Structure formats: C-alpha cells, structure tokens
Amino acid sequence: MSYCCGAGMIGTIGSVRHQRTLVRNVPILFCPVCDRTEVHPKIEGEYEILVEYAHGDHAPEVDFNDFVNIDHREDLFDNCTMIDDGGSMDDILRQQIDIALDLLGVAKALQDEEWRNALKDRLQRLSERLKQYNKRKEISQRSA
Ligand SMILES: [Zn+2]
Question: Total structural domains in the chain?
Fold first, then answer.
C-alpha cells in the first residue's frame, strides 16, 4: 500500500499535465485527503521518456496507452486500492473513513493527542470528500 499523509493512496488511470503536454491514460496514484497526485512509481521511467519525446515533438497531447502496454501489468495496482470505473469511489472513501475511525480508537486508547488530532482532520476531509462526491453523483443522475 502506498501512503500519503497517513491515508492510503488510490490507484487509477488519469490524465497528467506536464508543462504544455497533456498525457492521457497514465496510471496514477492520488491521495483522497490532500489531493496529491503522482505518476505511478512503476511506470515513472516510461512516463518520463514519453514526456520528453512529446516535448521534443511539441505534441499538445499524447496517450500513454499508445506507447506503453499496461494491459499485462495487473501487478501495477497490487499495493493500493484501485478504481476501475469510478463507480466505487464512495466505497473507497467509506473504507478509508472506517480505517481512520479504527485508528482514532487506538489513538484515544494510547492518549496520543497529536495523532488523534491528525486523524480527526483526516476524517473531516474524507467525509467532506464523500459529501461532495455524492452531491456530484446526484447532479449527474438528475441531468441524465
Ligand atoms: Zn495526502
């Protein structure tokens, strides 16, 4: 599992902007708490080569999928939660909230104030995120 600010990072395929080039279909990891996104460490080498190539070519947009076959890289997301179709985002957020709640119990028992506060902060962000996500889902269902 990859971690960022204590929360588990979520694996997905997304677009990454690198200076003037938009790279599509890149395996990425993102943190649901602070929104940090990073290119998946296992394909970072390939990503850098592609970006350099796109840069030299002045390509405004490239598709990572066209250059690197990730179909046979099931191991890519072995160590993190994966979103395959976006539909499970609220499940993942709920999972992370459960984990944070469990940890909060531990921090309480240990009387670790600093950790407790950090976890409370994380819980708040995760539940805000879940609220936002559900709101967005409602809107898109209504307009569909
Ligand atoms: Zn983070």
Answer: 2
pLDDT tens column, 85-135: 555 788 888 988 999 999 999 999 999 999 999 999 999 999 999 998 888
Q: How many angstroms does the Cα of residue 106 sit away from the middle of ligand 1? A: 21
Same domain, 10 and 76: yes
Distance between CA atoms of 48 and 41, rounded to whole angstroms?
Answer: 11
**Tokens for 42?**
């296992």
Instruction: For residue 87, report the distance from its CA to the centre of ligand 1, in Å.
Output: 22
The rounded Å distance from CA 12 to ligand 1 centre is 15
Domain range spanning residue 124? 89-143
Q: How far is the CA of 52 from the centre of ligand 1 (A)?
A: 27
**Its pTM surpasses 0.85:** no
